Amino acid sequence: MGSMAWDCGLRYLFSLPPALQQGGMCALRAPDDLTRLEMVQRLAKDGCRFLQSQNYRLPDRSAQTQGEGVVRVCLKERGQNVLVLQRVASDRLSPQTAGGEEYPSDSSSSAVADRYVVVSGTPHKILEHLLSDLRLDEHQGAADGKEAEMLLDDFLLTYLVFMSTNDLCQALLGHYCTKRCRGKEEGKEALYRKRKVLHLVSQWSSLYKDFLREEEHVKLFMKTLYRYVLEDVYEFPTLEKDLKEFQKLLRRRHTVDDYSPHQKSKALFQQLSLKENGVQQRGAQADVREVMCRVYVSSDSYLSVRVRSTVVAQDLLHTVAQRMEKSEEDMVLVAQTHNGEKRSLQPHDCLFSETLTLPGKLIACWKDLSEVLPPLTDCAELLQRPARLLAINTWDVAVALTALDWSLFNSVHEQELVYYTFSRQASSGHTVALEQLLQRCNEVQQWVMSEVLLCASLGKRVQLLKKFIKIAAHCKAQRNLNSSFAIIMGLNTAAVSRLNQTWEKVPGKFKKLFSELELLTDPSLNHKAYRDTFRKMKSPKIPFMPLLLKDITFIHEGNKTFHDNLVNFEKLHMIADTVRLIRHCQTDQTGNDVAQSDSPDVRASVHYLHIIDNQQTLFELSHRLEPRA
Fold first, then answer.
1. Cα separations (Å) of 293 from 310, 443, 451, 618?
2. Is 141 inside any structural domain?
3. Which neighbouring-strand residues pair with 612?
4. How confident is the model at residue 244, as a pLDDT?
5. What local confidence, expressed as pLDDT, does residue 623 receive?
6. Quick one: 357 and 445 in the same domain?
7. How many angstroms separate the CA atoms of 542 and 117, rounded?
8. Could you say which of 258, 287, 316 is where a domain stops?
9. Is 68 helix (H, G, I), strand (E, B) or coil?
10. How many domains in the chain?
11. 166, 184, 597, 608: least CB-packed within 10 angstroms?
12. What count of Cα atoms within 13 Å lies in the side-chain half-sphere of residue 414?
């Protein structure tokens, strides 16, 4: 803990809870018995109130700007602020009425409890406060236990903003092994501290799933902590339950009971290999994962193809040739680097790296390396193609869109939103699923534009508009606002909305339906129409991801990450609260049991999209269909 002045630069007065005011005393332990932070926390739990002296100045904001009743507790070490807590009044009964053993109290059961939330602090002090405040199994049902779990969730979702994973591992090992207590309660409090660390690690592992499994220092940390628990189970027999849970966490095949005490440590520790039992399993999962792949077929358009991450060049080329109705034998797949160099891929070349990134821009070419299609404005053949979508049931298309969106959305980890917001590094490998979902949203919008603008027949264009309006409505009914939003925006783009002759022939009931759907995209009052609609939808549901990211970015850019060299945890709580929406939306996915058509035409209509990604081409096609008056 380090040397610390007892006045802590604060000079607080203590006012006793009502039960103790009549001749009662508020007992404090000697400084050596517990840390200043623990003392503050225990007094708060016992109902003692902290009154700020008039000569103390708050570090960040004045009391006037925060309101008259706001009290902040500031902890200092070596003259520097290390933790700032803010008292939040609560109407619930004080926590000690739940009969918790760890913080006994003599105060009345009718006392009003105050809780303290983290405002800012150093990473290590925030972690220390978190562990001190954490409740174990017997306390988690209480209100303060839930608040501690929320603090833990906030910390785990955002810790990478202010400390490295290696720093967290070292800090947790330090807390697990620390012997800071002396006297009768040493064994009991040490046991509580160790169990809290194990609980935090369990929650961390559960939250991150495969996110950190390949990091070397995490493997070493897990091995070291496991060895410590094995050693401690003799002194603390009740740790055996936690040990077994830890084994499940590490996907162990054996339990402590399978070995004699002498064999436990050696045999189990030798088996502990995250590389064999964790990473390989992740690799197996990655092998069957489907990803979105762009293959350019002209200078201004590409085919978006849904493929397995293990796809090889020959298989991808076969799929592209089928969709383009070209001869595969006359084609070759080319990877173009950023500086324009082209390299022909061999048939059995794997395309995706471990981070699911491609070797470059993929282009389908004839064997003389010329592109399969000329620019679309010169492609008379493509403009005469039939509109395949007109022959497919709109509900089936919406179901297929939603099924594909679900597979992408359900792969998005909450942590990806934090990485995406704070790390400006594109394709870092930590945001693959999120980037694919955003890519898909953008492609659905461009696909709608492309289908309409590549349809030369006025009558068929009208039918296409009607189809897309119905598909957007069906997606909304299936609680898929990601695709619904994208389709509406595609129809609202300038190149499509300017087709007055086409829109005039759309029946009135479809125009009315489209106007109702357009309200979803109305940005006024901070997208109130969308937010109200989304809030009323039950889970599972798919949000419009760009807007969710906009909310997180707004919080990030509107608030400092650090105040006076302390982590601004109020900001991180707001970000974690927004990120948790993903968890809520993914809840009970089995409830989204819309029957899906298994028709190859339906699957192909949403898995293979021919997309124009050149704005000039889109406007040229639009003006060719309906020239300016």
1. 12, 11, 19, 22
2. no
3. 301
4. 87
5. 95
6. no
7. 32
8. 287
9. coil
10. 4
11. 184
12. 24
Tell me: do 551 and 413 sit in the same domain. yes
Give me the residue label for tokens 């309006």. 469
- pLDDT tens track for 56-73: 333 333 333 445 567 889
Among candidate residues 108, 123, 138, the one where a domain is terminated: 123
DSSP strand pairing (566-568 vs 13-15): unpaired
**Cis geometry, peptide bond prior to residue 95 (ω within 30 degrees of 0):** no
CA 628 to chain centre: 46
Quote the pLDDT of residue 333: 94
**480 DSSP assignment:** B
Q: According to the model, what pLDDT value does residue 247 have?
A: 85
Rg, the chain, Cα only: 30
Residues paired with 610 in a beta bridge: 303
Residue of 572, 616, 427 whose CA lies nearest to 118: 572
The Cα 7–Cα 10 span in angstroms is 6
Residues 92 and 170 reside in one and the same domain = no
CATH of the domain at 327: 3.10.20.90
User: Residues with Cβ < 8 Å from 186, sequence gap 6 or more?
Assistant: 179
Are 293 and 304 a contacting pair, CB within 8 Å?
A: yes
The predicted pLDDT at position 290 comes to 82
- Residue 371 is given by DSSP the state B
- Going by C-alpha positions, the residue among 493, 506, 491, 581 that lies closest to residue 540 is 581
Q: Supply the range of the domain harboring residue 479.
A: 392-629
Q: Within 257-383, where are the H helices? A: 261-271, 274, 280-287, 313-324, 380-383
Report the C-alpha gap between 366 and 330 in whole angstroms. Answer: 6
| CATH number of the domain bearing residue 247 | 1.20.870.10
Terminal Cα distance for the chain, rounded: 79
Strand segments, DSSP code E, in 122-273 are none
Q: Examine the domain organization and report whether 92 and 65 are in the same domain.
A: yes
- Asked whether residue 6 is assigned to any structural domain, the reply reads yes
CA–CA separation, 543 and 558 (whole Å): 23
Say if 364 falls within a structural domain: yes
116 phi-psi bin (left φ>0, alpha ψ -120 to 50, beta other): beta
Is residue 469 domain-shared with residue 602, that is, in the same domain? Answer: yes
Rounded to the nearest 5°, which phi and psi values hold at 210?
A: -90, 5
Does residue 544 contact residue 482 with C-beta atoms inside 8 Å?
yes
Q: Which residues of the chain have pLDDT under 70?
A: 1-69, 89-114, 137-145, 179-186, 212-214, 251-288, 382-384, 424-428, 588-598
The pLDDT assigned to 300 comes to 92
Question: pLDDT of 441-451, one tens digit each?
Answer: 999 999 999 99
Place of tokens 């909304």: 476
d(CA 628, CA 567): 57
In a domain, 158, yes or no: no
Centre a 10 Å sphere on the Cβ of residue 10 and count the other Cβ atoms it contains: 16
Report helix, strand or coil for 185: coil
What residues contact 80, with CB distance under 8 A and at least 6 apart? none
